Amino acid sequence: MMTRQSHGEPVACFPAGTLIRMADGSERAIERVRPNEHVVTAEGRTGMVSHLLMRREAALIIRLTVWDHAPLHVTPEHPVLTRRGYVCVGDLRLDDWIGLTRYRPKARVALNVCKLISPRERTPGAVVGSIGGVDQATDAAAGVAAIPEVISLTPRFGRLVGLFLGAGIATSNPMHFTFATDDRGPITDECLDLVSDLGAAAEVDSSTSGRTHVFVCVAEWARLWQRLCGTRAVDRMVHPLLMGDDAFLCAMLDGWMACEGRAAGRSGRAPHSVGSTVSKVLAFGMYDIAQALGLRPIIRWCPPKVNRQTPWYEVEIESPCDDTENGDNPRCAMDGTHVWRRVRGIEQGAFDGMVYNLSVEGDESYVAQGIGVHNCAPSRP
């Protein structure tokens, strides 16, 4: 059920495109969340959505920024989780600490490929065997290993997924990974080795100046990667079927950083890696993983530049040595359920468009772009 609110009701809301943390570990734009689906609550539990509320807003919207976190656009009356309880965004102070919810979905042990590719789409005449503990389909006619039926979510497969999220292209035939030749030679060899784990045929082409390509020759793989990780760079995502154990998630994060990462460090602080992507969903997906692993990540929105015409996101992993001598960070703290970051700015701006809110059974809270929020919509009759 979708409920439309009248202009006169003071309902707290978010604009379209605000990402909501789902119980399966994925991120979803708020306007695409539907009743009966489950979301993460501000306290790190899960709750079922009972209503999606929507209305037109032609007034002010707040751009809330906390230190080392991407901005959140929200109407002024929406409550967010702070150390002094839920506080309306319009009443926040610069000394408030905002709660960024940590959440870890139940770990999966394997990827069932049939949930992404139907039997009708699979290679005709394939027979199932086993390679390295992975159920493997082999096209007897061609003598070429086809896509497996089941893939164990091992750290090695996690690393391969991370490499694809950073360097994979599945819109051409054959699908391939593209690495910079000068400094990514070892990763090229590693990619070949990881692809061979699954029995897939692969070959290297370094004919393009400054680039090395690893081509995966089985056409089914392109279909799998498109559905698992998104087709275009802007569509990249961490699929909920990839929510493996900590070792798998860490390997996936490291693989993505290995392709997209760059060394970074602020004055007087230890250098560490920063990953970048034009996909908002992928950025928050990697942020969520790092947050669940206790790595205390940073996520930034970066505006377009002359040589980069679209905005992008950066995910950085903070180093423990960035804390002060007594073990405290003046802008960040972490406990078992949240990372707490101080408010950096509260800016007002004009807005005219549709805004959305969720009613969640239980405590009426959810997580919007990492931040715990509460639904303050008026009670329904």
Considering the protein shown, what is the CATH homologous superfamily of the largest domain?
Homing endonucleases
**Alpha-carbon distance between the termini?**
15 Å
Shape, principal axes of CA atoms? globular
Structural class: alpha+beta
CATH class of the largest domain: Alpha Beta
Helical amount among residues, as a percent range?
A: 10-25%
Number of strands: 27
CATH architecture of the largest domain: Roll
Q: How many H/I helical runs? A: 5
Which terms would index this structure?
3 domains, 381 residues, Endonuclease I-creI, 27 strands, alpha+beta
What would you say this structure looks like, in words?
The chain is globular. The relative contact order is 0.23. It has three domains: 2-59 and 72-102 and 347-374, Endonuclease - Pi-scei, Chain A, domain 1 (Beta Complex); 110-244, Endonuclease I-creI; 253-334, Roll (Endonuclease I-creI), CATH 3.10.28. Helix 1 (155-167) crosses helix 2 and helix 1 runs parallel beside helix 4 (246-260). The protein is built from five helices and 27 strands. The longest helix has 15 residues, at 246-260. Strand 6 (46-66) and strand 7 form a beta hairpin. Strands 1, 2, 5, 6, 7, 10, 24 and 25 form an eight-stranded mixed β-sheet that branches. It has 381 residues and is of the alpha+beta class. The model is unreliable at 5-10, 125-144 and 265-271 (pLDDT under 50).
